[in-house]
Write a structure and sequence with these properties.
Layout: H1 3-6, H2 9-26, H3 36-55, H4 65-92, H5 94-99, H6 105-132, H7 144-168, H8 172-186, H9 193-199, H10 201-208, H11 211-223, H12 232-235, H13 242-263, H14 266-269
Helix pairs in contact: 2-6, 3-4, 4-6, 4-7, 4-8, 4-11, 6-7, 7-11, 7-13, 9-10
């Protein structure tokens, strides 16, 4: 799976066509069309904000909490969408795999790129909220692309592993849905990490070791609220960043090896 092969002209053309096809098919026959890519995270944000911020008063001590919450929802929605799209990519393209000989990883990448396009659209909505809520914009926001790259690499690694495992074990989809539901509440998205810290410093530190928590908290620090956002760096120290980053690197290496070892049997197992 070398970079030379990934970016060869033939593979670039195939990747582009798969991405365009995925994006068109997803909204084909839909009245709202591409607007769904914006509407879904907004509806989820609205429900969570009313229940947890308005009714339960969670986050009342956090300045610009609506934007704080929306950014977390958008980043998590991308991770869930990218991994689910990647998980189903190989199985859904079974007929294509049997007919044409081409690098199978392109199918998984195309699914995650479709989710990445939705992420960029949703981030545009987040920045509209930033302007409407008078959130101060600093030069720190220029570092956000680095977090997006980190998030994409993590999501792609998970997608590679899930897509290969899903060919052999179709229960993977159900198990992953359950895991995502549990992980959503185990990640500080709908509640500030400060609330956890007040009750248990140990639990708060453990939660921060989750790569998704690290990415979301760092993004909030850069975009929304640097003074009230706990991150790995300002809570434990910069040296502890090696843990969530190490998890991503290990996951990427393992997923690449696992996918490569199983891809030769995809046509037979699908």
């Amino acid at each position: 799976m070398s970079l030379q092969n990934i970016f060869s002209k033939r593979n670039r053309i195939l990747l582009r066509e798969l991405v365009v096809t995925d994006f068109k098919l997803r909204y084909q026959g839909s009245v709202l069309g591409y607007f769904w890519s914006i509407l879904k995270p907004l509806v989820m944000f609205s429900v969570l904000y009313v229940v947890f911020a308005v009714i339960l008063q969670i986050g009342r001590g956090i300045e610009h909490f609506p934007v704080y919450l929306l950014l977390g929802v958008v980043l998590w929605s991308f991770f869930a969408e990218a991994t689910n799209q990647g998980r189903a990519a190989i199985v859904s393209r079974g007929s294509l795999i049997r007919k044409i000989n081409f690098p199978k990883y392109i199918i998984v990448i195309s699914g995650t790129i479709s989710a990445l396009i939705n992420l960029f659209i949703s981030l545009g909505v987040v920045f509209i909220f930033v302007l409407v809520n008078d959130v101060p914009i600093t030069s720190a926001v220029l570092l956000l692309p680095l977090l997006i790259i980190e998030l994409y690499i993590f999501a792609l690694a998970v997608a590679f592993f899930l897509s290969a495992a899903n060919v052999k074990f179709r229960d993977v989809g159900h198990l992953w849905d359950i895991f995502l539901q549990a992980a959503f509440y185990a990640t500080p998205i709908i509640y500030p990490l400060n609330l956890v810290l007040e009750r248990s410093e140990t639990v708060a530190n453990i939660l921060l070791m989750n790569p998704m928590a690290q990415i979301i908290q760092d993004a909030r620090y850069l975009v929304v609220n640097p003074d009230q956002t706990l991150t790995v760096s300002n809570t434990l120290g910069v040296q502890f960043m090696i843990i969530p980053l190490g998890i991503i690197v290990v996951m990427a290496l393992f997923a690449t090896y696992y996918f490569k070892s199983k891809s030769k049997y995809f046509a037979e197992d699908i």
